[in-house]
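Why do we care about 3D structure at all? Because function follows from shape, and shape follows, mostly, from sequence. That is the central idea of this module. The next example makes it concrete: a single protein chain, its amino acid sequence, and then its structure expressed as tokens.
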Amino acid sequence: MIGPWRKRTQKTESQSEAPASALDQNSQLTASPASIRLHDLCYQYPDGRQALDHLRLTIQAGECVALVGPNGAGKSTLLLHLNGILPGRTTGGALHSHGADDPQATSRRNPGQVWIEGLQVNTANGPQVRRMVGLVFQDPDDQLFSPTILEDVAFGPLNLGLKPAEARTLALQCLERVNLAAEAHRPPQHLSFGARKRACLAGVLACNPSILALDEPTANLDPRGRRRFIELIRSLSATKLIASHDLDMVVELCPRTILIDQGQVIADGPTRAILANEPLLSAHGLEVPLSLILEARTSSEPAEKPIMPA
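And the structure:
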């Protein structure tokens, strides 16, 4: 323990500890499943780069957690594992044992790698997991594909079995939540970048997920669009994991921050303690957010004396 945050070091297999919160992880998951649990998650891209390296973390229901780190740290790759978008398969087989397609992999020593609300992420559980996890991509153009945003937002509910009229009503309600109801019949390409991001969020909300994974939600937004999106995120009660370089937003929204670099958890703890630690941030390509710098200056300056009337 170093200060109020925990600095993590990787161990060899012989030194590896059991998951911190349990002696018997299977019974723990059954009794009180976390919203998100990753255990020794590894992922290697086809070019050989190790994106995730024995990564462990647990997020409880209702938490709003920031995932920070330099470019290439593995943040987006991690998010893509939460609903199985990256199962890591090539013609040569799996690049990691994501979940437990092989029954032999469900031993106590290696029970798997990713769980969502106690459900292991694997091929068999994929449809159910994807109903639980809503992913908002960094670039809305990677997510919007229908002729109008109304059709785009209704696409998910239709695939979940709603009738067209019900899906349309739900889509309009979700567009209203993100202040886009008046734009329902416009093509996505005719909207601003910020409006397209909000349309993506509406499409995710229409599927009513219990977990939201947001990749750089405020990137490339003007100040008004950024503020609007922050307030939208704040209003949502789902469990939230937010990958971002916008550290001022992180201070504002997330009580807890996880710093990762080179696919490993470096620190995990209270946001203000981690983001005020300049040596830690500098060592991993980050800077103390301006809001904390100004806050520290204000608290260290003597209070101005009031001007008294003569």
